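TOKENISED FOLD:
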Amino acid sequence: MTHFFLPLGTLVNVLTVVCGSLIGIFFHKCIPSRIHTTVMQAIGLCTLLIGTQMALKFVNLIFLIFSLLGGAILGELLQLEDKFISVSEKIKQKCKTSAPNFTQGLLTAFLIFCIGSLTILGALEEGINNNHALLYTKATLDGFTAIALSASYGVGVLFSVIPLFIYQTTLTLLAAMLQPFFTPALINQLTAVGGVLIIGLGINLLQLKEIKVTNLLPSLIFVFILKPFL
């Protein structure tokens, strides 16, 4: 039944991220900078591994490439990353915080929390089968990740719950309304494209190269456009 739906998994996810962020912010000064650096490197390496596992689930490599190319062009034309940074800076001003890494923390946390395979699969499972198990698992992992991220980036990580709630709830509601549309092939292709974006994020976290991952987000839209050819 879809006449009323409570995204319980997403609400729990938001709660764990808030709790994790507050813990990280509170203990920030108690953790030496060298530990911050090493922890972020560990997160970066894990992110690369997760992204690689996701990317290998592609159904059609050519359409994966087309999705990424189309997403990159559209993202650059729309200047998504610049717009996201602008919104983040306005939130920072409204909150009257001087945290130097506010925008970077919000952007990094949003991408980590919203592009992973558990986000896609968990939201679809909740929307289609009303099963919250995957999102509960994701909520637990995100809570611990939020501790590490907020200890390094500060309060910006806490505000990532806003786009997290909007994105994850939207995906869940779409799955609930359009159940037959989300075929296994489509889900695998979405996972694969998300995996490539996760790899890009891992590269950013390791400071190997600055990749505008936000500008690649429309790649997920192109997966839906190419669905008839999967």
Summary: The radius of gyration is 17 Å. Residues 8-229 form one domain.
